Amino acid sequence: MGRSRYAERVDARLGNTVNEIFLKVPPKDARKVFANLADAAKKDGIVYEEDDGEIRPVPIMARPRVIRPEQEQYFHKVCLDLTRAIEKLARMYVDDPRVRALLPFTEREERWLRDIWAKVGKQPQTVVARLDANADFADDDWDKLHFFETNSVGVGGMYYAPACASIVMRTVVPAMQKQAPALVLKPQDDQRQLLLEQITVHARAIRKRRINTAFVQEKDAVGGPNEFPYLVDYFKQNGIPAVLVDPRDLRMKGDEIYAGDLPVDILYRDAEIGEYIALEEDGADVSALRQAFLNNQVVSSIAGEFDHKSTFEVLTTPELAEHFTQKQQRIFRRHVLWTRIVRDVKTTGPDGEPIDLLPWLRRNKDRVVLKPNRSFGGMGIVVGPHVDLATWDDAMAEALHADAAETGGVVAQKYVDVKVKDFPVLDDGSISLEEFYVVCGFLATPRGLGILGRASKKRVVNVGQKGGLTAVLVLV
């Protein structure tokens, strides 16, 4: 049976049409939807911990974003190839001094990295990465998405995304379907399941008979989403022995690593090696965790350590193209934003032209943004088109004085307009549409694709900056 004419209309105008359906819901029922949405989010633990320890709920947008199957297939292929390119960075770092210059580490980080790579570099590597992108599923040019950041250690949203989709499916979608029965939606691939599958594949690749999994997270860490307990529960519900453990509490018993009484086969980490080195410098014993890296028992493995924004300088530098396949190079040209560490250097510009970087950045501030290379949470970003020249000059001066070895320095990245979408909001009992900036984080594995949707009133769209979540559902 072919699709109804109404479903085709939804295809043609995804964003606005979905809003139109929502606005047809009787006001009394719509207000109940908003209330149920907030209650479910709180009950299901969609919360964020501020640095001062305050727990706040994360808003969920009241209507889903909708993706078509052919779009999902395209994004999956692109993201999978980009993730495979990222997996090459460790060997490139060890073998090519040009790459080492673009991916700065501290001296101790580099020592850890080299020691581990010398032991496991020839073994299978598993990188679980969320690729953040500016994507518009409703645009005629939907396939021109732009990636602006990788997240390959401690990927956020693996619980948020499926939980958000489940909440919207049971609280919002039924009310919309009463107004539009032809609107049939389904959740995307569950990112928790994708993670479980990748951990299973890695365990088999390193010849482990079990898949006992330790989720490694500092017990006294404050701030951010606290998703690991939910991931532990998911693994247990699927028959996988799992535990949440502080890196300082891991112990060796003979040749095996233990978390409490559980012998551990795979460790899923939420931090870069720099944080474990900091614990070590404070006198903590993290030798069991280090041994896990040396045994290649960690996911993301050491190949995922290159969680730098300057990763995209490696991908967009013509002289380094030889490291990648022709297909990957085409993806970089089409979808990866031009990125350069701020420094006094001759390089290529966004259009491939030779430039002196520093004077070019001052002349072209409206074309770029500045970002701390190794920070996260949307902090410290300066958007060139939205600041005056004096502010830009100050930010450039600060970038030039940043210690690249300690902090990774600052990158300049090509500016693209953040996508804007209308969402229903409830204000004093009245329902109307308001504009929000939106971005997506794509997690691709050979078995599927998950998307973390986010929305904010700020141009820097991040849950840590008090942004919210959008469920991304598939049009059936």
Structure in words:
This protein starts with a helix and ends with a strand. The protein has a domain of 77 residues. It is of the alpha+beta class and 476 residues long. Helix 3 runs antiparallel to helix 8. The N terminus is likely disordered. Helices cover 38% and strands 23% of the residues. The protein is built from 18 helices and 24 strands. Strands 4, 5, 20, 21, 22 and 23 form a 6-stranded antiparallel β-sheet that branches. A 4-stranded parallel β-sheet has the order 8-7-12-13. A 4-stranded antiparallel β-sheet has the order 14-19-17-18.
How is this fold's topology laid out?
Layout: H1 5-12, H2 14-24, H3 27-43, E1 47-49, E2 55-57, E3 65-67, H4 69-86, H5 89-95, H6 97-102, H7 107-120, E4 130-134, E5 146-151, H8 160-171, H9 173-179, E6 185-186, H10 191-205, E7 213-216, H11 228-237, E8 242-245, E9 250-253, E10 256-259, E11 262-264, E12 266-269, H12 273-281, H13 287-294, E13 298-299, H14 311-315, H15 326-335, E14 339-341, E15 346-348, E16 354-356, H16 357-363, E17 368-372, E18 382-383, H17 389-401, H18 404-407, E19 410-414, E20 419-427, E21 430-445, E22 448-456, E23 468-470, E24 472-475
Parallel strand pairs: 3-24, 7-8, 7-12, 12-13
Antiparallel strand pairs: 1-2, 4-5, 4-21, 6-24, 9-10, 10-11, 14-19, 15-16, 17-18, 17-19, 20-21, 21-22, 22-23
Helix pairs in contact: 1-2, 3-8, 4-15
